[in-house]
Amino acid sequence: MKENLISKKELLEVMGISYGQLYRWKRKNLIPEEWFIKKSSYTGQETYFPKDKIIERIVKILSLKDEVPLDDMADYFTHKKINKELTSEYILSKGVVQPSSLYIYKSFNRSTKEYEFYEVIIMSVIERILMIDGFKEIYVEDSVKMLMENKSMLEENNVMLIGIAKNENFIPFIVKEYSAVAFPNNFKEVFKINISLITEDIKMKLFN
Predict the structure, then answer these.
(1) How far apart are CA 84 and CA 115, in angstroms?
(2) Which of 77, 105, 124 is the last residue of a domain?
(3) Which Pfam families match (predicted)?
């Protein structure tokens, strides 16, 4: 899957930011090193970025910069492990998920009042699956099982959950974003969920 790229010059113009701001955010780990893609050009070498991701990230930075110190903001965007256990009450009070999503997760896994961070990610994924057109219960059942079996991947960078279906058959799988994916014959994609973006969103809601 080919990435849609944007040059550094165009990015600065489109977003109305300076060279200094861009590289300060890089130093603060708000923008990952791997997003700075070097390519040869007639002038020597040019820097490009994955367009959709960098624009979305800069919009978030600009929206938060007057309220959240840059050093704290980095915790939202870097996939540092969150070791703190979170109560049901705290999760719901921060609006991370609806009570129904938390209840469904508990029915699949365990009834408790405290959760690890990866479990909150799964709750949020459940919420998104429930909103899919043509939703079926098997989408949640098999996806939760897959996520639980691969929980160590959930806080890595650029992780996607993809669900494909054919008649009554459904297969969920986890891939690195922008990986090339080939489906079995006659299967169609029924959802694609960016877990890394969900992780950022959860951190901003929980710890802001």
Answers:
(1) 9
(2) 77
(3) DUF4004 (PF13171)
